[in-house]
Predict the 3D structure of the following.
Amino acid sequence: GAGVSQSPSNKVTEKGKDVELRCDPISGHTALYWYRQRLGQGLEFLIYFQGNSAPDKSGLPSDRFSAERTGESVSTLTIQRTQQEDSAVYLCASSSTGANAQFFGPGTRLTVL
Amino acid sequence: RKEVEQDPGPFNVPEGATVAFNCTYSNSASQSFFWYRQDCRKEPKLLMSVYSSGNEDGRFTAQLNRASQYISLLIRDSKLSDSATYLCVVNPAGRRALTFGSGTRLQVQP
Protein backbone atom coordinates (compact mmCIF):
# COMPACT_ATOMS: atom_id res chain seq x y z
CA GLY A 1 0.00 0.00 0.00
CA ALA A 2 0.96 3.66 -0.17
CA GLY A 3 3.43 4.95 2.36
CA VAL A 4 3.66 8.34 4.01
CA SER A 5 3.90 11.15 1.51
CA GLN A 6 5.05 14.72 2.01
CA SER A 7 4.94 17.82 -0.10
CA PRO A 8 6.72 19.75 -1.32
CA SER A 9 9.91 17.71 -1.45
CA ASN A 10 11.97 20.90 -1.52
CA LYS A 11 11.09 24.42 -0.51
CA VAL A 12 13.28 27.50 -0.82
CA THR A 13 11.94 30.63 0.81
CA GLU A 14 13.10 34.04 1.89
CA LYS A 15 13.59 34.97 5.50
CA GLY A 16 10.39 36.34 6.98
CA LYS A 17 8.01 34.44 4.70
CA ASP A 18 5.51 31.84 5.92
CA VAL A 19 5.67 28.23 4.71
CA GLU A 20 3.26 25.30 4.86
CA LEU A 21 4.43 21.71 4.76
CA ARG A 22 2.02 18.87 4.14
CA CYS A 23 1.96 15.26 5.28
CA ASP A 24 -0.32 12.44 4.14
CA PRO A 25 0.00 9.53 6.55
CA ILE A 26 -0.56 5.86 5.84
CA SER A 27 -4.30 5.26 5.59
CA GLY A 28 -5.76 4.16 8.91
CA HIS A 29 -2.82 5.32 11.01
CA THR A 30 -4.18 7.29 13.93
CA ALA A 31 -0.84 8.63 15.19
CA LEU A 32 1.13 11.23 13.25
CA TYR A 33 4.44 12.90 14.14
CA TRP A 34 6.54 15.78 12.88
CA TYR A 35 10.32 15.88 13.31
CA ARG A 36 13.05 18.23 12.22
CA GLN A 37 16.53 17.13 11.21
CA ARG A 38 19.30 19.64 10.65
CA LEU A 39 22.22 18.65 8.48
CA GLY A 40 24.37 16.06 10.25
CA GLN A 41 22.17 16.07 13.34
CA GLY A 42 19.70 13.66 14.92
CA LEU A 43 15.92 13.75 14.79
CA GLU A 44 14.30 16.56 16.77
CA PHE A 45 10.72 15.78 17.83
CA LEU A 46 8.27 18.60 17.14
CA ILE A 47 4.68 17.45 17.69
CA TYR A 48 2.55 14.30 17.98
CA PHE A 49 -1.08 13.88 16.91
CA GLN A 50 -3.43 11.18 18.07
CA GLY A 51 -6.42 11.51 15.77
CA ASN A 52 -6.93 15.24 15.27
CA SER A 53 -5.70 16.30 18.68
CA ALA A 54 -2.11 16.99 19.70
CA PRO A 55 -1.38 15.59 23.17
CA ASP A 56 2.31 16.41 22.87
CA LYS A 57 3.45 19.71 21.37
CA SER A 58 6.52 19.90 23.57
CA GLY A 59 8.99 19.96 20.71
CA LEU A 60 7.70 23.01 18.86
CA PRO A 61 10.66 25.42 19.12
CA SER A 62 8.69 28.68 19.18
CA ASP A 63 5.25 30.14 18.62
CA ARG A 64 6.16 30.63 14.97
CA PHE A 65 5.59 26.90 14.56
CA SER A 66 2.10 25.40 14.49
CA ALA A 67 0.50 22.26 13.13
CA GLU A 68 -2.94 20.93 12.57
CA ARG A 69 -4.49 17.69 11.47
CA THR A 70 -7.90 17.23 9.95
CA GLY A 71 -10.09 14.22 9.22
CA GLU A 72 -7.63 12.07 11.13
CA SER A 73 -5.58 12.19 7.98
CA VAL A 74 -3.63 15.04 6.42
CA SER A 75 -1.48 17.27 8.61
CA THR A 76 0.01 20.66 7.87
CA LEU A 77 3.03 22.14 9.64
CA THR A 78 3.17 25.93 9.34
CA ILE A 79 6.22 28.03 10.04
CA GLN A 80 5.58 31.76 10.21
CA ARG A 81 8.20 34.46 9.63
CA THR A 82 10.85 31.91 8.72
CA GLN A 83 14.40 32.35 9.97
CA GLN A 84 17.61 30.93 8.56
CA GLU A 85 17.90 28.56 11.53
CA ASP A 86 14.64 26.94 10.39
CA SER A 87 16.52 25.43 7.44
CA ALA A 88 16.34 21.65 7.85
CA VAL A 89 14.59 18.55 6.60
CA TYR A 90 11.11 18.25 8.08
CA LEU A 91 10.04 14.62 8.42
CA CYS A 92 6.57 13.28 9.03
CA ALA A 93 5.86 9.79 10.36
CA SER A 94 2.74 7.82 11.16
CA SER A 95 1.94 4.74 13.19
CA SER A 96 -1.12 2.67 13.98
CA THR A 97 -0.88 3.67 17.65
CA GLY A 98 1.46 5.86 19.65
CA ALA A 99 3.54 2.96 20.90
CA ASN A 100 4.01 1.19 17.60
CA ALA A 101 6.74 1.51 15.03
CA GLN A 102 6.63 4.70 12.98
CA PHE A 103 6.89 4.89 9.22
CA PHE A 104 8.48 7.98 7.75
CA GLY A 105 7.82 10.04 4.68
CA PRO A 106 10.67 11.25 2.46
CA GLY A 107 10.73 14.66 4.12
CA THR A 108 10.58 18.26 2.97
CA ARG A 109 13.93 19.99 2.64
CA LEU A 110 13.42 23.62 3.68
CA THR A 111 16.01 26.24 2.85
CA VAL A 112 15.56 29.76 4.21
CA LEU A 113 17.69 32.33 2.43
CA ARG B 1 20.80 12.54 31.07
CA LYS B 2 19.37 11.77 27.64
CA GLU B 3 16.44 9.36 27.49
CA VAL B 4 18.20 7.25 24.85
CA GLU B 5 21.99 7.24 24.48
CA GLN B 6 24.09 5.81 21.69
CA ASP B 7 27.77 5.91 20.80
CA PRO B 8 27.85 8.14 17.71
CA GLY B 9 30.76 6.20 16.16
CA PRO B 10 31.77 5.99 13.41
CA PHE B 11 32.37 2.28 13.45
CA ASN B 12 34.65 1.46 10.52
CA VAL B 13 34.66 -2.26 9.79
CA PRO B 14 35.77 -4.43 6.85
CA GLU B 15 33.28 -6.37 4.77
CA GLY B 16 32.40 -9.66 6.39
CA ALA B 17 33.03 -8.43 9.92
CA THR B 18 30.62 -8.75 12.82
CA VAL B 19 29.75 -5.50 14.53
CA ALA B 20 27.62 -4.73 17.58
CA PHE B 21 26.00 -1.53 18.76
CA ASN B 22 24.58 -0.85 22.19
CA CYS B 23 22.06 1.70 23.30
CA THR B 24 20.98 2.60 26.84
CA TYR B 25 17.67 4.07 27.93
CA SER B 26 16.80 5.88 31.13
CA ASN B 27 13.15 4.99 31.75
CA SER B 28 12.95 1.54 33.31
CA ALA B 29 9.23 1.28 32.52
CA SER B 30 9.78 1.65 28.76
CA GLN B 31 7.65 -0.74 26.74
CA SER B 32 8.55 -0.78 23.05
CA PHE B 33 11.96 -0.88 21.42
CA PHE B 34 13.08 -0.64 17.81
CA TRP B 35 16.11 -0.25 15.59
CA TYR B 36 15.92 2.01 12.54
CA ARG B 37 18.51 2.68 9.87
CA GLN B 38 18.98 5.99 8.12
CA ASP B 39 20.96 6.37 4.94
CA CYS B 40 22.61 9.67 4.11
CA ARG B 41 20.00 12.30 3.16
CA LYS B 42 17.16 9.77 3.42
CA GLU B 43 14.38 9.19 5.92
CA PRO B 44 14.74 6.63 8.75
CA LYS B 45 13.46 3.17 7.92
CA LEU B 46 12.37 0.52 10.40
CA LEU B 47 14.98 -2.23 10.63
CA MET B 48 13.44 -4.38 13.33
CA SER B 49 11.47 -4.38 16.55
CA VAL B 50 13.23 -5.61 19.68
CA TYR B 51 11.49 -8.21 21.81
CA SER B 52 12.26 -9.29 25.37
CA SER B 53 13.29 -12.75 24.22
CA GLY B 54 15.60 -11.34 21.56
CA ASN B 55 14.96 -11.69 17.86
CA GLU B 56 16.81 -12.34 14.66
CA ASP B 57 16.22 -11.30 11.08
CA GLY B 58 18.77 -12.76 8.72
CA ARG B 59 22.15 -11.27 9.58
CA PHE B 60 20.68 -8.96 12.21
CA THR B 61 20.08 -9.89 15.85
CA ALA B 62 18.51 -7.59 18.43
CA GLN B 63 18.63 -8.12 22.17
CA LEU B 64 16.96 -6.38 25.09
CA ASN B 65 18.38 -6.35 28.62
CA ARG B 66 15.75 -4.82 30.87
CA ALA B 67 17.79 -5.21 34.06
CA SER B 68 20.63 -3.11 32.65
CA GLN B 69 18.37 -1.01 30.44
CA TYR B 70 20.19 -1.53 27.20
CA ILE B 71 19.40 -2.74 23.73
CA SER B 72 21.89 -4.20 21.31
CA LEU B 73 22.08 -4.79 17.58
CA LEU B 74 24.45 -7.34 16.11
CA ILE B 75 25.22 -7.38 12.41
CA ARG B 76 27.00 -10.46 11.06
CA ASP B 77 28.84 -10.74 7.76
CA SER B 78 28.71 -6.97 7.15
CA LYS B 79 27.99 -5.78 3.61
CA LEU B 80 28.91 -2.49 2.01
CA SER B 81 25.18 -1.77 1.84
CA ASP B 82 24.96 -1.91 5.64
CA SER B 83 26.77 1.44 5.79
CA ALA B 84 24.26 3.79 7.41
CA THR B 85 23.34 5.39 10.71
CA TYR B 86 21.53 3.07 13.11
CA LEU B 87 18.96 4.67 15.40
CA CYS B 88 17.87 3.15 18.70
CA VAL B 89 14.22 3.93 19.48
CA VAL B 90 12.30 3.54 22.75
CA ASN B 91 8.74 4.15 23.90
CA PRO B 92 9.17 5.63 27.38
CA ALA B 93 6.32 4.75 29.71
CA GLY B 94 3.97 7.62 30.35
CA ARG B 95 4.56 9.13 26.93
CA ARG B 96 2.75 8.13 23.84
CA ALA B 97 5.45 9.04 21.34
CA LEU B 98 8.68 7.21 20.61
CA THR B 99 12.06 8.67 21.55
CA PHE B 100 14.90 8.39 19.05
CA GLY B 101 18.57 8.15 19.92
CA SER B 102 21.03 10.29 17.99
CA GLY B 103 22.31 7.29 16.04
CA THR B 104 25.48 5.26 15.54
CA ARG B 105 27.23 5.58 12.22
CA LEU B 106 28.52 2.43 10.54
CA GLN B 107 30.92 2.47 7.61
CA VAL B 108 31.65 -0.90 6.03
CA GLN B 109 34.81 -0.83 3.95
CA PRO B 110 35.82 -3.07 1.04
